[in-house]
Amino acid sequence: MILRHRLRNAFHPRPGAPGRGNGPRPQASDVILVMMAGLLVIAAIVKILQG
Question: Tens of pLDDT along 5-15?
């Protein structure tokens, strides 16, 4: 998934990482946006399950 890809790049910003290692490393704002999106998804799932 895209979220896992972004999070993996955020937590391991090695220059020699496999994949697109020479690309720009994600900024802190991108990581915060991804985490907020994940929280929104989790909150929506909890609301749906609770009815």
Answer: 555 555 555 55
